[in-house]
Amino acid sequence: MKIINDFEYYKPLEIKEALNLLSQYKAKARILAGGTDLIVSLKEERINPEALIDVKGIIPLNLMELEDDKLFIGANKTFTDLLESDLIRDKFPLLWECSSKVASIGIRNRATLTGNICSAVPSLDSAPALLIYNAEVLVAASNTERTISIHDWFTGPKKSALNTDELVLGISLKIPDKHSASYQKLGRYKGEDLAQAGIGIYVDREKDYRFASCAVGPVPARMKKLEAFLHKKEINDKLLAEAAEIIPSEISPITDIRAQAEYRTHMMKVMFRRGMQIALEVLPGGKE
């Protein structure tokens, strides 16, 4: 399928140039980085922008830098870049695992972490990790910069807090305490399927338990009731069974062509217990 709509194509080499274009076109422009969602939308004529702004040539957006206790991931960094980073694997194992379950190798080679959150689809795989790690999103307009907490980023299905004249520069993550993690994803088949349900799990030696969901509500979200129930407790099978019964109050899945709401809810309970068992086994050094 070809792209049949006309638009202006720009490839700025500086952030300022891209911001000036966004200031000019606003909602009539689209940013091209990985393009895995954008190109499909153009071909299917779901969008008809007046301008396409290709940011792949902006060098600062290609950086991944550790400064003091914070990691900055530039907006052009792909999921493959994250998977090839020893720092991500060692310090942010949940983000590494979520990245490994995004679509296929071909998609991961092009799709960016920033593009994933800008799509703001409820099923995005990166959201549980970013929510659990309390990520911050750095955005800029022509005359201003601001930081948006990931907890305020998702405002609705396919909607975010990003304004039409703003560009995401990157995502910042504070280095967490040593921990183990697990991302459990329900799909119809292995490969490129979107999550029917997903849960990210974080466990550390201080009995700090964190959980976040995707694909079971209008936006990805932390599971605060579950966290409060398990806080500082010694985990056993009975406690996990009791905790699993809290999950239906934390989520609001829908029934669609891909899965029924009841099935999603049931599998969230199953994946919670499975993921906790994996994370607890890894924590003492039993697995690598």
Could you give the count of β-strands?
14
Q: What would you call the structural class?
A: alpha+beta
Share of residues in strands: 15-25%
Helical run tally? 12
Helix content: 25-40%
Here the CATH topology of the largest domain equals Uridine Diphospho-n-acetylenolpyruvylglucosamine Reductase, domain 3
Strand order of the largest sheet: 4-5-10-6-7
Tally of structural domains: 3
Estimated radius of gyration: 19 Å
Give a short account of the largest sheet. 5 strands, antiparallel
Terminal Cα span: 44 Å
Q: Would you identify the CATH architecture of the largest domain?
A: 2-Layer Sandwich
What characteristic shape results from the CA principal axes? globular
The succession of helices and strands, N to C, reads: EHEHEEEHHHHHHEEHEEEEEEEHHH
Top-tier CATH class of the largest domain:
Alpha Beta
Give the rounded overall mean pLDDT: 95
Oligomer class: single chain
Uncertain segments are none
Per-chain topology:
Elements: E1 8-10, H1 15-25, E2 29-32, H2 38-43, E3 51-54, E4 64-67, E5 70-74, H3 79-83, H4 86-91, H5 93-100, H6 105-110, H7 113-119, H8 127-132, E6 136-140, E7 145-149, H9 150-153, E8 154-156, E9 159-160, E10 167-174, E11 179-186, E12 197-204, E13 209-214, E14 221-222, H10 224-230, H11 237-244, H12 261-282
Parallel strand pairs: 1-3, 2-3
Antiparallel strand pairs: 4-5, 5-10, 6-7, 6-10, 8-9, 11-12, 12-13, 13-14
